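S1.2 Input.
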Amino acid sequence: MDETDTVRFGIASVRELEIEVEPGRDVAKEFEEAVSDGTQLLWVRDVLGHLHGIVVDKVGFIEVESALKRDVGFGPET
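S1.3 Output.
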């Protein structure tokens, strides 16, 4: 499986929605544009192709966690 970025939206009702998106997608910028444009609903497609509608004025915070490079296999102990 390819590496993904994880995006977590903190909803004002103290719930979170975590969505894995394709690497390089700037959801934070898309959210900023939605706020400045007065868009009420931001659509985010996850890596499985599911489409999630986020009510912009209900979002309390956004946390973007970029994929970390993971080593696979065995190496010498250090």
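S1.4 Remarks. The helical segments are 27-37.
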